[in-house]
Design goal:
Strand content: 15-25%
Number of helices: 12
CATH class of the largest domain: Alpha Beta
Radius of gyration: 21 Å
Helix content: 40-55%
Structural class: alpha/beta
Distance between the termini: 19 Å
CATH architecture of the largest domain: 3-Layer(aba) Sandwich
């Protein structure tokens, strides 16, 4: 899986900084970028989702909807200025919005350029996410779903994909983040998108993302710190607990009832109490912590939720938790 043209590891704060001309190559510049991101978050956030048909735009839209964004799929580009005016009239309802603009309604590039200029004038951040995949992956997905490609001709699906790549070339150039979804599950796609979602916070806050995952599905490549919690006894082998996730109380009691779980959390907290202030002083705006067990469904979820609660009690950080394998 390849991610092209993204600000990996710094997320949306760097993308915002680039839009405002702030350098992020020094600690002072990174700190200023984080402060700018926090200020802009207070006026809402506009996400444009575009890319190739079959690359996962619908799943991306659903993620943003779950996060409280007002989502519109297949918005005709000609209606984008009108929608932005609607947003001006009711910013509380339409503060955070995610709009899917793609080839179904024509070339979205001109509308994206106009929207970016209009939102820049308002001081509102806009982020363009472009999703793509290999021809082989797209053809396989169309074969599985039996859907018709919007540009498909008698020559078949591949000719439609080639035509779509050509027509969306300018849109791809305008993207802040280009994500190759070839071979990604829905959970892994959500993991990628999660790192691009802005969160409100004070200018000097460190945004901490805690991800849970299953080692058999691969380690999250964007993680700054990775902890292996497979040393704990696995609830998977307890018949009554096997179907329950780590979010359920019986599983939580089983995992946290093990003495080593408590000691592990104490040691991780000591590490973070030492390093988080240093990360913040160095201008780091986001820290991604990954906890993994075999399947990412029991032990890692319990410990991640407990760790998040403890970190929230420290102050000076904004903490979010995402369970990658929960929907598998």
């Amino acid at each position: 899986m390849a991610i092209l043209g993204q600000t990996s590891g710094k997320g949306t704060s760097v993308a915002r900084a680039a839009a405002t001309g702030i350098s992020t190559t020094s600690p002072a510049g990174r700190a200023e970028a984080g402060a700018t991101g926090a200020r802009l978050a207070s006026v809402g956030h506009v996400v444009i989702i575009s890319g190739l048909s079959g690359a996962g735009k619908s799943q991306a839209s659903k993620l943003f909807e779950d996060l409280g964004y007002y989502c519109v799929d297949n918005l005709p580009p000609e209606l984008l200025p009108g929608f932005l005016s609607l947003r001006d009239g009711d910013p509380r309802r339409y503060g955070d919005v995610a709009l899917v603009l793609d080839i179904r309604a024509g070339d979205p590039a001109p509308a994206i350029e106009l929207a970016r200029a209009a939102l820049d004038a308002r001081g509102i951040p806009m982020q363009v996410l472009y999703l793509e995949a290999s021809d082989a992956s797209l053809i396989s997905r169309y074969s599985e779903t039996r859907h018709r490609h919007p540009l498909q001709t008698r020559s078949g699906v591949q000719s439609g994909i080639v035509e779509e790549r050509a027509r969306l070339a300018r849109t791809r150039e305008l993207a802040d983040n280009v994500i190759d979804t070839s071979g990604l599950s829905i959970g892994q796609l959500k993991e990628r998108l999660f790192s691009f979602v802005p969160r409100e916070g004070a200018a000097d806050e460190l945004l901490i993302d805690i991800l849970t995952f299953g080692f058999k599905f691969g380690i999250p490549i964007e993680a700054d710190l990775v902890f292996d919690v497979r040393f704990l006894t696995n609830p998977y082998y307890v018949p009554d607990l096997k179907p329950l996730s780590g979010l359920k109380e019986p599983v939580k009691e089983y995992v946290l009832g093990q003495p080593m779980a408590g000691r592990f959390l104490e040691l991780v907290m000591q590490l973070l109490e030492l390093t988080v202030p240093a990360y913040r002083a160095e201008g780091k705006t986001r820290l991604t912590i990954a906890l993994g067990c075999t399947g990412g469904y029991h032990r890692s979820i319990v410990l991640a939720e407990e760790l998040a609660e403890r970190l929230r009690g420290l102050g000076g950080s904004s903490v979010a938790v995402f369970h990658r394998e929960l929907e598998r």
